[in-house]
Amino acid sequence: MTRDTILTAARAVLDREGVPGLTVRKVAARAKLSPMAMYRHFADKSALLDALMDDGLATWGKIVSSISAEDPMAWLEELIEAYLNFALTKPHRFDAAFMLPAPSARQFPDDFAVGRSPVMAMVILRIDQAKSNGWFGNKPALDVALSLAALAQGLVSMHRANRFSSEAQFKTIYRTALRHCIESYSV
After folding, report:
1. Same domain, 151 and 181
2. Phi and psi at residue 106, in whole multiples of 5°?
């Protein structure tokens, strides 16, 4: 069995049962090997969580890389919609990218400032482009990007905790709040 086989099994368990159902035993059973055999490829559960986080972030990175808008503000609008779609249509992969307690998770601000996050680097680039067009004033692009990411993730977390009366209400509030956040930086 290879590392890829184990990671494929871990993705399947994650997609079926979410983060709470992700155990080494379940992944091993899905991969048709003993839990001890997994440790030849992943030192421990933390290493498996890191690999799943990286896989979720790679999925998110592919989605963001496919955004085609040329105008930086249109690109940011598409990004906001893509994030919403990712959270709603691939919830367990979204969780792997953004919610797993992975030991090697990127840390603010240093990892983002040095470009360790390819997606955040793309977002910062678009914010800097928008700044040259008169948006966002002299606000640091990393601060704007973090505000947008935190607000989006917070609203998704609230939706997951059933804090909205419906998915339609959540989507409306999500879009409105993020638009207001962008507009607030342009004052």
Report:
1. yes
2. -70, 145
Which is more confidently placed, 105 or 154? 154
Query: Is the model's pLDDT at 18 over the cut of 90?
Result: no
Residues 27 and 106 in one domain: no
Closest among 105, 104, 121, 60 to 86, alpha carbons compared: 60
Find the mean pLDDT for residues 170-179. 98
| Domain of residue 34, residue span | 1-42
The structure tokens listed for 142 are 């990393």
Q: Examine the domain organization and report whether 19 and 90 are in the same domain.
A: no
What are the φ and ψ backbone dihedral angles of 79, each rounded to 5 degrees?
-60, -45
How far, in Å, CA of 46 to CA of 22, rounded?
Answer: 12
Q: What is the mean pLDDT of the chain?
A: 92
Distance (Å, rounded) from C-alpha 172 to C-alpha 175? 5
Q: Tell me the H-state helices in 67-117.
A: 72-89, 91-98, 110-113
Q: For the chain, what is the domain count?
A: 2
Tokens at residue 70, please? 């040329």
- List C-alpha distances in Å: 36 to 31, 40, 42, 47: 12, 8, 10, 14
Q: Which among 179, 173, 180 is positioned nearest to 79, based on CA atoms? A: 179
Structure tokens given for 85:
């779609």
pLDDT for 114: 87
